[in-house]
Write a structure and sequence with these properties.
Number of strands: 4
Radius of gyration: 18 Å
Structural class: alpha+beta
Shape: globular
Order of helices and strands: HHHEEEE
Number of helices: 3
Largest sheet: 4 strands, antiparallel
Helix content: 25-40%
Length: 132
Protein backbone atom coordinates (compact mmCIF):
# COMPACT_ATOMS: atom_id res chain seq x y z
CA UNK A 1 0.00 0.00 0.00
CA UNK A 2 2.81 2.44 0.82
CA UNK A 3 4.29 1.87 -2.63
CA UNK A 4 1.05 3.02 -4.24
CA UNK A 5 0.96 6.17 -2.08
CA UNK A 6 4.59 6.93 -2.82
CA UNK A 7 4.07 6.52 -6.56
CA UNK A 8 0.97 8.70 -6.47
CA UNK A 9 2.90 11.37 -4.56
CA UNK A 10 5.61 11.42 -7.19
CA UNK A 11 3.05 11.78 -9.95
CA UNK A 12 1.82 15.12 -8.57
CA UNK A 13 3.59 17.97 -10.29
CA UNK A 14 4.30 21.28 -8.60
CA UNK A 15 2.77 24.11 -10.55
CA UNK A 16 5.02 26.83 -11.83
CA UNK A 17 4.34 30.23 -10.30
CA UNK A 18 2.81 32.88 -12.54
CA UNK A 19 5.80 35.25 -12.18
CA UNK A 20 8.21 32.45 -13.13
CA UNK A 21 6.09 31.36 -16.09
CA UNK A 22 5.72 34.93 -17.36
CA UNK A 23 9.40 35.74 -16.87
CA UNK A 24 10.42 32.65 -18.85
CA UNK A 25 8.03 33.70 -21.62
CA UNK A 26 9.40 37.26 -21.55
CA UNK A 27 12.97 36.05 -22.08
CA UNK A 28 11.95 33.49 -24.72
CA UNK A 29 10.09 36.22 -26.64
CA UNK A 30 13.09 38.53 -26.28
CA UNK A 31 15.45 35.93 -27.72
CA UNK A 32 13.08 35.13 -30.60
CA UNK A 33 12.96 38.85 -31.43
CA UNK A 34 16.77 39.10 -31.19
CA UNK A 35 17.14 36.19 -33.62
CA UNK A 36 14.81 38.00 -36.06
CA UNK A 37 17.02 41.08 -36.01
CA UNK A 38 17.37 44.57 -34.57
CA UNK A 39 14.01 45.92 -35.77
CA UNK A 40 12.05 42.99 -34.31
CA UNK A 41 13.88 43.32 -31.04
CA UNK A 42 13.32 47.08 -30.88
CA UNK A 43 9.59 46.42 -31.35
CA UNK A 44 9.71 43.82 -28.56
CA UNK A 45 11.30 46.38 -26.21
CA UNK A 46 8.68 48.99 -27.13
CA UNK A 47 5.84 46.53 -26.59
CA UNK A 48 7.10 45.26 -23.23
CA UNK A 49 8.48 48.48 -21.71
CA UNK A 50 6.92 49.20 -18.32
CA UNK A 51 4.17 51.80 -18.87
CA UNK A 52 5.61 54.12 -16.20
CA UNK A 53 8.83 54.33 -18.23
CA UNK A 54 7.56 54.50 -21.82
CA UNK A 55 9.65 57.56 -22.64
CA UNK A 56 12.87 55.78 -21.73
CA UNK A 57 13.29 53.46 -24.71
CA UNK A 58 16.66 53.64 -26.39
CA UNK A 59 17.51 52.93 -29.99
CA UNK A 60 20.01 50.10 -30.19
CA UNK A 61 20.82 50.54 -33.86
CA UNK A 62 22.03 47.24 -35.31
CA UNK A 63 22.65 45.66 -31.89
CA UNK A 64 20.60 42.75 -30.56
CA UNK A 65 20.48 41.55 -26.97
CA UNK A 66 20.14 37.86 -26.14
CA UNK A 67 19.29 37.16 -22.49
CA UNK A 68 19.73 33.82 -20.75
CA UNK A 69 18.01 33.92 -17.33
CA UNK A 70 18.89 31.83 -14.30
CA UNK A 71 15.24 31.09 -13.47
CA UNK A 72 16.04 29.75 -10.00
CA UNK A 73 17.23 33.24 -9.00
CA UNK A 74 13.88 34.97 -9.59
CA UNK A 75 13.02 36.86 -6.42
CA UNK A 76 10.83 39.78 -5.35
CA UNK A 77 12.58 43.16 -5.17
CA UNK A 78 10.00 45.68 -3.92
CA UNK A 79 12.68 48.32 -3.23
CA UNK A 80 13.70 48.70 -6.90
CA UNK A 81 13.17 52.29 -8.01
CA UNK A 82 15.04 53.38 -11.17
CA UNK A 83 15.65 57.14 -11.15
CA UNK A 84 13.89 57.20 -7.75
CA UNK A 85 10.58 56.08 -9.26
CA UNK A 86 9.03 52.85 -7.99
CA UNK A 87 7.21 51.17 -10.90
CA UNK A 88 3.62 50.04 -10.39
CA UNK A 89 3.19 46.28 -10.05
CA UNK A 90 5.09 43.41 -8.46
CA UNK A 91 8.81 43.89 -9.01
CA UNK A 92 11.08 40.90 -9.59
CA UNK A 93 14.85 40.59 -9.99
CA UNK A 94 16.57 37.74 -11.81
CA UNK A 95 20.15 36.77 -12.58
CA UNK A 96 20.96 36.78 -16.27
CA UNK A 97 23.71 36.26 -18.79
CA UNK A 98 23.52 38.88 -21.54
CA UNK A 99 25.12 38.64 -24.97
CA UNK A 100 25.05 41.55 -27.39
CA UNK A 101 25.57 41.04 -31.10
CA UNK A 102 25.98 43.16 -34.17
CA UNK A 103 25.27 41.12 -37.27
CA UNK A 104 26.83 37.74 -36.47
CA UNK A 105 29.58 39.09 -34.21
CA UNK A 106 29.43 39.06 -30.42
CA UNK A 107 30.14 42.58 -29.18
CA UNK A 108 29.62 42.04 -25.47
CA UNK A 109 29.00 39.44 -22.81
CA UNK A 110 28.00 40.15 -19.21
CA UNK A 111 26.52 38.47 -16.16
CA UNK A 112 24.28 40.53 -13.92
CA UNK A 113 20.67 40.96 -12.93
CA UNK A 114 17.61 42.47 -14.56
CA UNK A 115 14.28 43.64 -13.23
CA UNK A 116 10.85 42.70 -14.49
CA UNK A 117 7.49 43.92 -13.25
CA UNK A 118 4.27 41.94 -13.23
CA UNK A 119 1.47 44.41 -13.90
CA UNK A 120 -2.06 43.66 -15.10
CA UNK A 121 -1.21 40.04 -15.89
CA UNK A 122 1.78 40.93 -18.11
CA UNK A 123 5.49 40.93 -17.48
CA UNK A 124 7.12 44.26 -18.34
CA UNK A 125 10.79 45.10 -18.59
CA UNK A 126 13.07 48.06 -19.03
CA UNK A 127 14.68 48.44 -22.44
CA UNK A 128 18.47 48.50 -22.31
CA UNK A 129 20.12 51.86 -22.83
CA UNK A 130 23.87 51.45 -23.37
CA UNK A 131 24.44 55.23 -23.48
CA UNK A 132 23.13 55.73 -19.91
Amino acid sequence: MSTVLFAAGCAAQATESEPLRLSRQYFADNNIAAAQGPQAQQEFFRRTQHPDFLGQNCELGETTVEIDPASSTLRPDPEFAPDGIRPRGDIWAIGVEVTTRMADSITGHQIGSLHLVLLDGRMHGFAPCPAR
